[in-house]
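Kindly inspect the following:
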Amino acid sequence: MASTVNERPGYGQLLRTPGAWTFLLPGFLARQPFAMLTIGILLLVNDTTGSYGTAGTVSATAGVAMALFAPQGGKLADRFGQAAVLIPGVIVHAAAISLLTVLALSDAPLWALLVAAVPAGASTPQIGPMVRARWAAKLDGSPLMSTAAAFESVTDEFTFVIGPVLATALCTGVHPAAGLVAEAVLTLAGGLLFASQRRTQPQASRGAAGGAAGERVSALSVPGVRVLAVVMLGIGTVFGGMQVSMTAFTKEMGEPGLNGLMYGAFAAGNMIAGIACGVIAWKLSPQRRLLLAFPLLVLATTPLWAAHHMVLLGALGMLVGLCIAPSLITGYTLVEKLVPASARTEAFTWLTGAVGLGQAAGATVGGRLIDAHDASAGFLVPLGGTAVALLVLLAMRKALTPRSESVVAARGVGHREPVSVD
């Protein structure tokens, strides 16, 4: 239902939630490395091998491992508690990144880099989904939940502003390995600090018998979550394709130091739109918003390959960024309505992992196209990835109907048992 501005709780009220800042600040620090990992690997391996294709392949391997293992970590966090999963995870991640960095600087063969990239990606902590789960535990049943969803999406957007720009600046201005080193340090320090805030973590639901029937099913069994995962894959190809293509473009133009600025313009557009989406009192349902926003993203990626000037590409990149945020935010808003509370962290990690997987695929395909042609060819990846995702979204759009609507209908005819709804 539509709401008015006066009825909608604001960011100020949300941030005054008791105990919120105890997990928000360490969570913000710990989630930055998520956006630094693939670009850090890409820049380091490209520097040591001279091949965008090789760098994209290693980066993609880490992204695939992250996408496949993240939901399993979400399941474990739901069952045993976030700290029990996070503490050993960040230690393993820091060790894996250290190994990958040493191998890359030692001119190790490709197979060794690929092997090291698997644990580096698989152990990446999923802080964003864990923060969302903490909000949900604190605000269960509160109208502030929708505000928290928007706030977290804006924070994710800001992560994609800061993380890649920081990694790029360190790799190009300090040392090719500096981006990955910073990623490992931030992961370890931020992750341990976040894990120490045990009072705000959701209660663990150990054992399959601890809830009502059906409560322990996988979030991926919900059709709408699968559709949203495909949408996030498409969005991920934009991130990956833009990263590798802008890196190659600025090198071709003889200005590699401007890569951070160019990608920053893209990411800034992303964040600006994210903030706007969080303060608007939407009258359209989330399903309709997604069906309107995602085609606009496809259109925005269309002219990228034809841009041959820094200023023009920067402007087009910002436009693409402005079109990403509405789809991302709406996707995360929808997934909260589609799955039960006991699978909440897992559902968020499927979406976050899908973005990472799409990012890795975009970097790999974009790198191959750049090696075979030029930087402009890499910009075809965001267009192709989002176009395919749009076809799936349009074909499966009915799966995005929230569970709450089905529950209301079921209660009306009285032929199904009531179930809890987020």
In short: The chain has 16 helices and no strands. The longest helix spans residues 20-49.
